[in-house]
Structures
1.
Amino acid sequence: MDSSQLRKQIAELLAKRARLEKELLQFRYTLVKGSLHLRYMECSYSGCKCKRGQKHGPFYYMSSKPDGSSGRTLHRYIGKTIQTQLAKGLSRYKSFQDRIHQMHKLDQKLSTLWNTFRDSLLDNTLLYNKEEKKERTVKKGERDSRS
Ligand SMILES: [Zn+2]
């Protein structure tokens, strides 16, 4: 890939990154960390329909990991219905997180491209400049004539 293609590609990724940053800055409302799960349960009554396969539910549960991934996942019972505010908070958290993840991927790509771009500008032939070569040949010639 030549450097003009690389420039174009890098500029595109930077624009994409800037868009994501702009979107993240526009988050104004509460986020709720966690993910939602539905569960069906059996109760403790022996004659209940749930013992014949018709389980109770669905009930909403939320699971979340406390900060630092070493912590245990916490499960919290929400109820038969979920509050709109909570649902919105959870979905906002998810889309915030998605954008951060996308930015991270872009940064990795960009890092590779910056290196490739730098290398496309390298010219190692300058290390072997002709003046030096000539000089070396002359010196060698002098020495040859002396001996
Ligand atoms: Zn039951």
2.
Amino acid sequence: MDAIARDLAPKVTAVLDLKNVQRLLDLGGGPATYAIAFAKAHPRLQATVFDLPQPIKIAQEQIAKQGLSDRINTLAGNFLQDDIGKGYDFIWVSQILHSHDEGQSQGIIGKCVQALNPGGTLAIHDFYLNKDGASPPGPAMFGVHMLAVTPRGRAYTWGEVAEWMAEAGLTAPEHLCYDEGDASILVAQKKYRISLLNPGYSGGGDRLPNQSPLAI
Ligand SMILES: C[S@@+](CC[C@H](N)C(=O)[O-])C[C@H]1O[C@@H](n2cnc3c(N)ncnc32)[C@H](O)[C@@H]1O
């Protein structure tokens, strides 16, 4: 998977506009290949790589080798159970969902939405299937492999993952097919909650006690 990431990372950094991103999370970032590419492309960006304790040691070595230990930190843990931090402007989830079942995948997306700043972006990179669930050929073959080698994983259609993202409180996702290959990215923003009431408004009318201000 690292060889694939090293091939795809320059193409991904070329297509994503991260110039306003200050804090990035690479969830399940493995050897930090993408976090390193993002940090090199955007000198003001601070990144966190989250992964299980063993892979995180490899990530730390790679980050140090690239002289980026002051800009990329690491968090060791299990993203299904542990806190993944918060205050991120951008969360990158690459090649993760296909190893997990639908409930776990929705849980990961929900956790990411909680960890994002309002207006922040969630990008989910995977070998997505088309709506028919059987094409393109690469992701279809990959999906069969996932059925064999993971307890409950499979390849998902980009439509089903986009639906989970929207249900979790993100804007309608864009599907970025960034090159001729089999991987593509779903990108969406966490919605702002905008109060429609003037900050000087102190109640009155028919609001119930303890009712929070009207927000969208
Ligand atoms: C297929 S690799 C993808 C690595 C990298 N994101 C990429 O696209 O090349 C999946 C990564 O997720 C990590 N991972 C799997 N389950 C995890 C969990 N429950 N908590 C944290 N990391 C996990 C693995 O250790 C591995 O590094």
